[in-house]
User: Fold this.
Amino acid sequence: MVRASLTLAAHPLAGEPLAASVEPPSQVLVVAAGILALLITVIGWPLLTHVIAIAHEGGHATAASVSGGRVVAVRLERSGNGRTDFAAGKGQSTLAFIGSAGYIGPSVFGVLGSFLLVKGQVEAILWASLVLVGILLLNVANPFGWFSSLLTGIVLFLVARYAPDAPQTLFAVTWVWFLLFGGYGDVLGLRKVRRALRAAKKRDEETDAGILGKQTWVPAPIWVALFWLGAVAGLLLGAGIMLGMVV
Assistant:
């Protein structure tokens, strides 16, 4: 809540040359990884929502940084919620950009990953993800946030550094699909929270949509719809790129 075609000359941290041209994953592998990612997302959502929370808060933090602001602190909670506190310039446009970047963050990262996949840059996806998680970790201000970010970073590092080519490729494609599915699941979670607040006759003063509804002239339900459209568009675009339907 409110609270980044690569060509690498050397293997990160190892100094080993990378092939100049790598074949992109086959469509069979992309489809299989998509099915696997969907099952993992649905079955493991209570646990893996923490990974999407990292991407969510990473979206806020990235938007704050590129808009000239400064990230003060990031918190990731056991409930799956999070908060990014930042110092930024005034103005509704800046607040809207930073505030909306959370729910579209996982989808945007997934689409960027799909572009790298079709270029055959499997390792680049993993190392770029690791770098982004590491940068976020530097701004995390609570123990659980440290634990979840560090654990995610360790998994990415081990796969990027030590996994054989075939398992590494399967993991990377599944990872991209998971970001795309998780972005959609994140928005569904927001809708569930808002329905619970309405049922309890409470005002929405904590979700991104509720905060943006107060800080801008756009009502909260419109923000929810925009987040949903962004997640669907990201999923369709990312899938289309990986399956060769979008050039």
